[in-house]
Amino acid sequence: MKQTKSYLAKTVEDLKPSGIRKFFDLAAGMEGVISLGVGEPDFVTSWSAREAAILSLEQGYTSYTANAGLLELRNEVSSYMKKQFHVDYNPKSEIIITVGASQALDIALRAILDPGDEVIVIEPSFVSYAPLVSLAGGKPVAVQATEEYDFKIQTHQLEKAVTDRTKAIMLCSPNNPTGTMLGENELIELATFIEKHDLLVLSDEIYAELAYDEPYVSFAAIEGMRHRTILINGFSKGFAMTGWRLGFVCANEELTAAMLKIHQYAMMCAPTMAQYAALEALKGGREDVEDMKKSYRRRRNYFVQSLNDIGLSCHIPGGAFYAFPSIVSTGLSSEQFAEQLLIEEKVAVVPGNVFGISGEGHIRCSYASSMEHLQEAVKRIKRFVEK
Ligand code: PMP
């Protein structure tokens, strides 16, 4: 019998592919391209972490771990979170080791959303949030953070977006794509709003290690917010471990038990050798993390200053490794700018519109690239803008 209908789920059919992909594909077919497009560290994972994974294989540790992850690793994560970010989670009942922060986001949303529940997504936003909300049966509600306020969302904007179906808000600080980091007072203001409307916060703290100007404050550390926070973090960015696919999620016992149900049926556990690598990354001291941070900070200062000198105005991003300059002065849309810059000068950046409405008029440049590449990119962007 002939196929007479689509077998695809409507929610999946309706999802648009990520706008970032198109530029990767275009750039991949060209030679001599300097890519400021990808959102990942340019460092290799520390040797001691890699060695720990090799050793785990040599010792034959190739079976599943506990669903929530190796207890030894959860213990380390718990101490790390306490020491670095002043939040206290029980390793036995409040931490799950996940397949990247990505899976943590997925199980967090699936654990809390009933069909039609709304989740506020602050744009410009990491491209996965809205699709993950939809896939979990929820409805993403976009609110626009703007350059005028350094891409920090204002409470009056959130007040307009909240309804009696709103269950949670996605928070990402330091932010992808803008690099904006919220300070303690701004988090306290947000906490007042969260309390008033009885909401949860999915706090994506994957860039917490990369905070350059002020100490990082976790949303869960704000008074009264621990039980309203699902804290998502991981090893990809701060520990340069993107390919290992390892993250974690911390929340109160009730939320953790709900997430663990999904995790154990859908994933069993995170990859065992990657868990051994992460264990060593945490135990091995902070030298590598601090060195990488210093290096990103140096590059941020150079790159953001250079963009402003060229005439592409750019606020100073407090964290992560992205600059998000305005390209409005060129008269081009962000897609036109990115496409023409790639074709004419072979520099790959991501057009801001892929991150949401308020991303238009901007481009995202990752400065996790060598200083030589950044210098050459600046030269090329300058030539392009002057044309
Ligand atoms: N959240 C944000 C804001 C990100 O930028 C990324 C990676 N680009 C992730 C989550 C996913 O990280 P992971 O590699 O841990 O899945």
TrEMBL record:
<keyword id="KW-0032">Aminotransferase</keyword>
<dbReference type="GO" id="GO:0008483">
    <property type="term" value="F:transaminase activity"/>
</dbReference>
<dbReference type="Pfam" id="PF00155">
    <property type="entry name" value="Aminotran_1_2"/>
</dbReference>
<dbReference type="InterPro" id="IPR015422">
    <property type="entry name" value="PyrdxlP-dep_Trfase_small"/>
</dbReference>
<dbReference type="InterPro" id="IPR004838">
    <property type="entry name" value="NHTrfase_class1_PyrdxlP-BS"/>
</dbReference>
<keyword id="KW-0663">Pyridoxal phosphate</keyword>
<dbReference type="InterPro" id="IPR004839">
    <property type="entry name" value="Aminotransferase_I/II_large"/>
</dbReference>
<dbReference type="InterPro" id="IPR015421">
    <property type="entry name" value="PyrdxlP-dep_Trfase_major"/>
</dbReference>
<feature type="domain" description="Aminotransferase class I/classII large">
    <location>
        <begin position="32"/>
        <end position="381"/>
    </location>
</feature>
<protein>
    <recommendedName>
        <fullName>Aminotransferase</fullName>
        <ecNumber>2.6.1.-</ecNumber>
    </recommendedName>
</protein>
<comment type="similarity">
    <text>Belongs to the class-I pyridoxal-phosphate-dependent aminotransferase family.</text>
</comment>
<keyword id="KW-0808">Transferase</keyword>
<dbReference type="InterPro" id="IPR050596">
    <property type="entry name" value="AspAT/PAT-like"/>
</dbReference>
<dbReference type="InterPro" id="IPR015424">
    <property type="entry name" value="PyrdxlP-dep_Trfase"/>
</dbReference>
